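$ run holo --ligand "zinc ion" --emit tokens
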Amino acid sequence: MKIILKVDDFWGPTKRFSDFFKLIADLNIKICLGIVGKGAVKMTPEQCAEIIGLNKNIEIFNHSWAHIISDEIKEFWHTDVYYQAYSLRVTNKIIKEKFGVDCEVVGFPANAFSENTLEILSKFPDIKRVFYLKGWNHYDELSALKKIIDINSNGAIETDMKVDVNRLKGAFESGVFSDKEVITFQLHPSAWSEQSFGEFKSCLDFLIALGAEFIFTNQL
Ligand SMILES: [Zn+2]
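-- output --
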């Protein structure tokens, strides 16, 4: 069983992310970390060193420049091609400057994107893989352009920003994962309570006991 942990919304160092990084380093687990360009641009070299030092555990993905989410407008939805191109390119540039990484993966804020995004991606060979939430539009067009990383088990670890190990165990017992070669979970540790962080540790213990292999998207 292969597992991808898609960890969203890294705007810069926080106590929670420090604890989170320590946990994955101690357990030697791989995660995919969504960097928001507008936050990362303010990071000092010392702050970047923490993430660079964890390059065996962290695969960085582009999580947009400003992470706009409202009812009317999202970073890659109801925005024009110029803004979207800027958001993708400037964030990849910051990721390269700050962390020395040629970022090949994007995960859109709220997983929302548009036909404009398809146009941009068709001209952006650096990005090779895209996180995709089931049920959104343009699956066929997107999969013709890039490798899709299906977020196929959103909610089993975290629902409404709350983590519950019993929900995860229940999901496995019900067999919803039995046909899945790779299980991708989406997580927002910056929004978790202390209790949810504790539950997440239990989730990892449970998954490790099942023999899970945590992978990067570039291992697919
Ligand atoms: Zn996000």
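-- notes --
Residues 81-99 form the longest helix (19 residues).
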